[in-house]
Amino acid sequence: MKGFPRLAAVTLLVGCDHASKQLAKGALEGGPPAPLVRGILDLQYRKNRDVAFELLRWIPERARAVLVLVLGALALAALTTALVRRRSLDATTAALLLLLAGAAGNYFDRLGRGYVVDFIHLSHWAVFNPADAYLVAGAVLIVAVRSFDRDGARSRSGSSA
Predict the structure, then answer these.
(1) Is 129 helix (H, G, I), strand (E, B) or coil?
(2) pLDDT per residue over 28-70, tens digit each?
(3) Computed from CA positions of residues 13, 17, 22, 23, in that sequence, does the dihedral angle turn out positive or negative?
(4) Which residue(s) pair with 48 in the sheet?
(5) What angle do CA 64, 135, 109 make, to 5 degrees?
């Protein structure tokens, strides 16, 4: 039963991601960008058939779609297993929760629509969505935890780098 609240939290985050994407699709599709903070932040509708920063654009779209779906399913299985097996509620658990929510949000977009809805645009950056923000936050948290653990172990052992 310990995994249930975690999976409920993932479900809530995915729901927020999908609700925002549906609102963006209805309000922004086919229209010009909607400025929120002029020159810094706007909303603009984009269909993303690739992964972050179009890293797989060199792979034909049909093969890319299959590859992303297969790898996405494997990632979801691995993240779900890791999250449910965690014994404690700590920063690593929170990071896994964010990573799973982000991966699931975009994966279900790909399954249902054939593409991911992106709509948040910071100037000088790619257009993204809440699931992408969850992924980035989870990755940053994992790096911070690992860095803190390594630095803490060094200071406890009395060695310096």
Answers:
(1) coil
(2) 999 999 999 999 999 999 998 866 656 566 566 676 677 888 9
(3) positive
(4) 116
(5) 50
Cβ neighbours of residue 48 closer than 8 Å, sequence gap 6 or more: 115, 116, 117, 118, 127
Residue of 50, 132, 149, 151 marked active site? 132
Known catalytic residue at 17: no
Query: Cβ neighbours of residue 161 under 8 Å, at least 6 residues apart?
Result: 154
Catalytic site residue 90?
A: no
**Catalytic hit among 109, 118, 149, 151:** 118
Host H or E run for residue 97: helix 91-113
Return the pLDDT at 1: 47
Taking a C-beta distance cutoff of 8 angstroms, is the pair 32, 153 a contact?
no
Closest by Cα among 130, 141, 139 to 21? 130
Taking only the tens place, the pLDDT of each residue in 88-133 is 889 999 999 999 999 999 999 999 998 999 999 999 888 999 999 9
Distance CA 131, CA 115 (A): 13
In this structure, are strands 41-48 and 127-128 parallel, antiparallel, or unpaired? unpaired
pLDDT score for 129? 97
Inter-residue contact 44 to 119 (CB < 8 Å): yes
Q: What is the mean pLDDT of residues 145-154?
A: 76
